[in-house]
Model the fold of this input.
Amino acid sequence: MSRLAALLGAALLAMATAASAETVGFSQVGAESDWRTAFTADMRAEAKSRGIDLHFDDAQGHVERQYAAVRRFIAEHVDAIVIAPAVVTGWSPVLTEAQAAHIPVFIADRSVDAEPSLFVARIGNDTNLEGRLAGSWLAQASRGRCSIVELQGSVGAAPTIGRKTGFAAVIAQFPSMRIIRSETGDFTFEGGKRVMEGFIKSTDGLKDVCAVWAHNDDMLLGAIAAMKAASLHPGKNVLMISVDGVPNIYRAMLAGETNASVEVKSDIGKYILDVVQGYLHGKRDYPKWVVIPTDLHTPEDAAKMLLPRPGS
Ligand code: AHR
Done:
C-alpha cells in the first residue's frame, strides 16, 4: 500500500512539474555562421537542462519568417518569447501584439530599433565596442597607416551597423587609415569568399591593401580561402581581423593566416534564460540592456582559446 502511495505521489509530482514547465518560443535568425549554430546549440542545451519546453524556429535569414514565428508563439500561448532579430527595423507591430497577449518578449544577441517598453530586456553584446576594438588593434598593428578592405555583415543587421560605425570612429582619428572597398558578404563563408574574389580583381591582387577587416569570422575565413587561391598570403603581408572567436578562426591564427578576432560569446543561453526565468518568477529590476562582455584575441592565446572552457 505504501509502495502504491509512493508511486502515485511520484506520478502526481511528475505531472505537476510537467504542467508547470515553462514554454519559451525562440525565433532564431538562421544558421549563417559558426557563431550562430553554436548559439542555437547552446540555447537548446540550456533550455533542456532547465526543463524548459523550447519552441524553436529558424527563420533562415528572413525577418518576415520571424514575424510569422512570433505570431505562432502567441497563438500557442507560450510563457515567454525570445527573439534574435535578423534586422533592427520593423518590429513594433509584432511586439505590440505580444504585449497585448501579455507575453513578455526578450531580445537576444542583436538589437531592435523599437520602443523599449515593448520588450523586457535585451541580452547581448556591444557591437559598437567590437568595431572599436578591431579598429584600435589595427591602428596599433599598422602604426596608423593602412588601406583597408571591409567585408560587411548582413544589410540592416545590428552587428553590421554597430561594428561598421565603431570601426569607422576609431580610424577617423588616423588621417592615413581609410577604407578603400566595402561590400556585404552576408555573414557567410561563401559571401566573404565571393566578395574577396571581387576585391582581389578590382585592386590588382590587393596591391597597396594593408588589411582585411571582416564583420565576422566566417566571412574572413572565406576571404582567406579566396586569397590563398590567388597565391596571396593572408596574415603575413596583409593584416586580417574579424569578430566572433569561433574555433576555426583560432585554428587559422595558429596556421599564421589571420591576426586577431574580437570574441563574441556564443554560450549565452544561460544569461538569456536566467533573465527569462527570473522575470517569469517575479523579478522585475532588470536593466533594459544586459551586456555580454567581449574581448580581443590574437595568435598568442589562440591555442588556449581552443581548449574546453570551464563548465562547457
Ligand atoms: O549577431 C551576431 C552575429 O551574427 C555574429 O557575429 C555573426 O557571425 C552572426 O551571423
Notes: The chain has a mean pLDDT of 94.
